[in-house]
Amino acid sequence: MKGFTDVARRNWVYKLAAFILAVMLWLYVQAEQQGVRVLSVPLDAEGLEMGYVVEPDLPKVIEVRVKGPKGTMANLSSRDFRARVDFNGLVPGPVTVKVQVDAPPAVEVMALNPVELALVIDVLENRSLPVSYEFKGTSPPGYRVGDPVLEPKAVVISGPRERVRSIQKVVVQIPLGAKETIVQSLPVRVASPVLKAGEEESLRISPKSVEVTVPITAEPPKTVPVQAQVTGTPAKGFRVGGTVVEPAGVFISGPAEQVQAVGVVLTEPVDVSGLSSDVTREVSLVAPAGVQVQGATKVRVTIKIVPSEEKEPGQGEVKPVDGQEEGNPEKDKKAGNKQV
Predict the structure, then answer these.
(1) How far apart are CA 238 and CA 304, in angstroms?
(2) Would strands 82-86 and 34-46 be described as parallel, antiparallel, or unpaired?
(3) CATH number for the domain formed by residue range(s) 222-307
(4) 123-218 — its CATH code?
(5) Which residues in the chain land under pLDDT 70?
(6) Given this chain, do its domains 2-122 and 222-307 carry the same CATH topology?
């Protein structure tokens, strides 16, 4: 017995070394059997009181880095975890909340991204606003756009109080270009001078779209006279005696208000500088703003150049009346007696 004890005492160093080696081997084997994975886990909010809202919006998922036995890790999915932020007891104002993750047994959470969130808790506000409209584009020539009918006529905006109060109006954009009545469901957009890009997503619009009906009717074209523009001065001793335009009138179309305001269509200027005889030119028409000229866009203009001393028609001329001959006083007298 004594001999065995002596042997045991003499070999304790070797035994300790063997024990340490065994532990290290066990740790190595365990490490070799561990696996590491990165998962995207949905993020939930809990404890946020009714009537409060958080901005910016919470991320939909967070990144979770975990490790565990390879057998467990092989069958692991994001549904096995629960990520959350706790708002219990928090009041409106800036807050910083930590992300908490519940993991399955034997699985260790190594890292989170993000670890915490800087947020602002605000009061939730609802506001009803009438829906206005804006036209995008132009109507085809010869078609009239009637007054749009929106259904519903108002929507409810919900979100952080300050953002909701910054909204000036809600609008729908109505595209033009059709030749028949427009019936469409169009999205509602908010107009605010302070909202930044992406902040509109924190607002809830109910409903998100409205039904829009816009009557489109065809209008007959309008006929207006063509007036020639003349520039310059004829040669000395001559003047412009008149103008002849062929065709004398054209059809125009466009928005009803603009068409009704047009009384005449002008030609491009015809220069008569230094001329002593008639001139004929083919010139383009100058369509008024917002109005289209139908058919030919050019006309034939003849400018009559006459001597300056030549009297204009109707000035100083004695015209025969009821067949009387010019220069026969006797017949003039008889014709005058017959009219008495």
Answers:
(1) 10
(2) parallel
(3) 2.170.120.40
(4) 2.170.120.40
(5) 1-15, 22-33, 141, 198, 310-340
(6) yes
Query: Among residues 52, 78, 76, which one has the least CA distance to residue 63?
Result: 78
| Phi-psi label, residue 338: left if phi above 0, alpha if psi -120 to 50, beta otherwise | alpha
Domain ranges of the chain: 2-122, 123-218, 222-307
Residue 152 contacts residue 207 (beta carbons within 8 Å): yes
Q: Cα torsion at 53, 54, 57, 58 (round to 10°)?
A: -120
Distance of alpha carbon 239 from alpha carbon 312, whole angstroms:
11
pLDDT per residue as tens digits for the range 93-128: 999 999 999 998 888 899 999 999 999 899 999 999
**Residue whose pair of structure tokens reads 């305001």 in the numeric block:** 261
Extract the tokens encoding 85: 């932020």
**Do 308 and 238 contact (CB within 8 A), yes or no?**
yes
Query: Domain 2-122 has what CATH class?
Result: mainly beta
pLDDT tens digits, 136-167 = 988 776 777 889 999 999 999 998 888 898 89
Q: Return all residues near 306 (Cβ < 8 A) that are at least 6 apart.
A: 238, 239, 240, 241
Query: Structure tokens of 265?
Result: 């269509």
The token duo for 253 is: 């179309």
CB 282 within 8 A of CB 131: no
